[in-house]
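Q: What residues go here?
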């Protein structure tokens, strides 16, 4: 519950921080914090520590997740953008189903006598590999105002949000349909 609440509460702020500080930077901060939260969960000595560490994971996850969507928009030309988002959907769906399944297997297998802690320990090597790959392969940080955003009102957060929302609505409503050639 702590993870879901913190993730949900932090998504909008995490996305906005990516707009301000740069998506690559916030992705790296989010991934690093998530890995640190996983370690804290694994070594938790009581429920209070575990709950606080799960909330930490949720907040840092909320910094990381929106950056992936924003970076897709920056990395792919308009003709390839729908395919990129279309490929991301099944990956997110499989992770939503596969994560709890893998966690159940890890707890049942009791690898190295760690019991339930392995569901958090498994995040450490995966998260470190993700951080190394992100540093090596993600493009340099580009702030929206530097990337030629078409938002007419950059100085007004509500207007900027409307522009962002309408772009996502257009992308979602036309997914899978051939669009005009650009």
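A:
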């Amino acid at each position: 519950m702590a993870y879901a609440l913190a993730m949900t509460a932090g998504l909008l702020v995490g996305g906005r921080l990516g707009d301000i500080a740069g998506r690559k930077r916030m992705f790296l901060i989010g991934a690093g914090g998530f890995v640190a939260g996983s370690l804290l969960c694994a070594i938790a000595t009581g429920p209070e520590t575990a709950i606080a560490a799960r909330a930490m994971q949720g907040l840092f996850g909320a910094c990381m997740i929106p950056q992936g969507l924003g970076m897709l928009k920056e990395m792919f030309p308009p003709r390839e953008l729908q395919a990129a988002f279309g490929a991301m959907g099944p990956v997110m769906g499989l992770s939503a189903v596969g994560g709890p399944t893998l966690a159940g297997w890890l707890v049942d297998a009791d690898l190295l006598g760690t019991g339930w802690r392995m569901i958090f320990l498994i995040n450490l090597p995966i998260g470190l590999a993700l951080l190394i790959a992100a540093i090596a392969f993600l493009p340099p940080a580009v702030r929206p105002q530097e990337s030629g955003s078409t938002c007419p009102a950059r100085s007004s957060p509500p207007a900027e949000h409307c522009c962002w929302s309408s772009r996502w609505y257009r992308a979602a409503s036309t997914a899978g349909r051939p669009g005009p050639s650009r």
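A: Context that may help when evaluating the design: Residues 92 and 98 are 10 Å apart (CA to CA). Residues 147-166, 168-173 have pLDDT under 50 and may be disordered.
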